[in-house]
Amino acid sequence: LHNRLSLHKRRRLHQHLTLHNRLRLHQRLTLHRRLSLHKRLSYHKRRRLHKRLSLHKRRRLHQHLTLHKRLRLHQRLTLHNRL
């Protein structure tokens, strides 16, 4: 009787575990799919953002550089005036 019960228990436990495994596997797969989809979407978003940002960056960089040039020019002039 004990053996039969343990066998039954083991079988049920095994079924339960396999169910768990299947669920976990399914979740993992769906998660993976969702992530990959998200990655793909975010890639496009990032590209669009990147373009916009790069334009912004370039403009700011240009401003920054022109500021630098002006400063250097100013320094050179003041230096020249001092001499």
Describe this structure in words.
With 83 residues, the chain is mostly helical. The protein contains one helix and no strands. It is rod-shaped. The protein starts with a helix and ends with a helix. The model has no long low-confidence stretch (mean pLDDT 79).
Oligomer: single chain
Number of continuous helical runs? 1
* Radius of gyration, in angstroms, nearest whole number: 33 Å
Major sheet = none
- DSSP strand (E) fraction? under 5%
Low-confidence stretches: none
How would you spell out the order of helices and strands? H
Structural class by sheet pairing and helices: mainly alpha
Which range best describes the helical content: under 10%, 10-25%, 25-40%, 40-55%, 55-70% or over 70%? over 70%
Give the number of DSSP strands: 0
Mean pLDDT reading: 79
Indicate the overall shape.
rod-shaped
Q: State the end-to-end distance.
A: 111 Å
Brief characterization of the structure:
By secondary structure, this protein is mainly alpha-helical.
Itemize the secondary structure elements and their pairings:
Layout (H helix, E strand, L loop, with lengths): L1 H81 L1
What attributes does this structure have?
83 residues; mainly alpha; 98% helix; rod-shaped
